[in-house]
């Protein structure tokens, strides 16, 4: 009966997580989707990203049979991990149903369905984190634990930003455990040190899958972050007498990092794009860390960018209308040609998902998601006020979630750029954990009501 309940919960949850794709009429496409598809089917590492997600798209689509396989697999991973987590944190025969209800609510009122329905690696940021939580609250030694470590490694290897993000997160958790700021429950400290150590090692090993892309592109991404955060402009005021080529384009530099790197009219391309700018950009970056004044600029910019990213989240950031001749359209036509007709019948192709369009669908969705996140805050405060009434596992899960969201904002704001997409891909974890915390409180109160009075118990 329990197995049947779990299977039903996972199937229903998986379908609910595909809601955005069902509503669109096709998996949601992003400007990078074409690069991922081409890399996976061509088995060539892209210049600016790992090949891992491209290979996963090929596997999930059954070697080009249907791209819907990717959306279903991504949604299945999320649903399985969340339901399993609920089972660890709020153990009950009805835990799978609780998890299913939470996921249905999240699919309707948070960003999760959009990202599980989208053909880019963003959902694997949350999947990586959910794997960590599952390893922290359950999974005794054995083949299941080995599978979770494998899933973590693959998930980390899908995006270059995961290395710095999870390395920082896991190291902070290690320090917190060592200082007794978080409990090791339900394991011993020795067990937790072992699991954290394994996760840190796997995070480090993920560089093997992205080392080539990191070497070729990290200078451009960090320079873009310096530009957007205002550090580059102040540095050029003081260092242009050294003859940097970028000084010739000071009046043409855009304000946003993404525009600097991806807009073909950007001075970045006039300077030689990724290969042509590597030497000079690395010199400027190294110079920016060589003087105390510049270091203070970096710290100030990092704090401001983190704050911007914390409050910047949403959907449809980069989900354009990819017409014939675009990289996305060409990749689908080359490797999944049977999907072209379905793609051109989608709402996205009809421009209904674009920001600022007449229907205002995206604006309405983002307003709803913001309202849900804001509404989660007082509930989270309530959970904190009732801190001692919930289990150590739930308390730790809340702390780790908040820490992870902070690290996500810091890494993206500091080393990339603060945009809604990079916040939206993980912000749904906040209402998820809030609902789990409220469920734990309700369960605790119900259990206390069922206890006999002290004189009867004796």
Task: Please characterize this protein's 3D structure.
The protein folds into two domains: 2-205 and 313-450, no CATH class; 212-289, no CATH class. Helices cover 70% and strands 0% of the residues. The chain has helices at 2-17, 19-24, 33-42, 52-60, 68-89, 95-109, 112-116, 123-137, 143-156, 161-178, 189-205, 207-228, 231-239, 257-262, 267-270, 273-288, 292-310, 327-335, 340-343, 361-385, 392-415, 420-427, 429-450, 454-457. It is globular and about 75 Å long. Mean pLDDT is 90; it is low at 454-458.
Give the oligomeric state: single chain
The overall average pLDDT, rounded, is 90
- Major beta sheet, specifics? none
Approximately how much beta-strand content do the residues carry? under 5%
Structural class, from secondary structure content? mainly alpha
Helix content: 55-70%
- Helical segment count: 24
Name its key features.
single chain, 458 residues, mainly alpha, 2 domains, 24 helices, disordered C terminus
Strands, helices and their partners?
Blueprint: H1 2-17, H2 19-24, H3 33-42, H4 52-60, H5 68-89, H6 95-109, H7 112-116, H8 123-137, H9 143-156, H10 161-178, H11 189-205, H12 207-228, H13 231-239, H14 257-262, H15 267-270, H16 273-288, H17 292-310, H18 327-335, H19 340-343, H20 361-385, H21 392-415, H22 420-427, H23 429-450, H24 454-457
Helix pairs in contact: 1-5, 1-6, 3-4, 3-18, 4-5, 5-6, 5-8, 6-23, 8-9, 9-11, 10-11, 10-21, 12-16, 17-21, 20-23, 21-22, 21-23
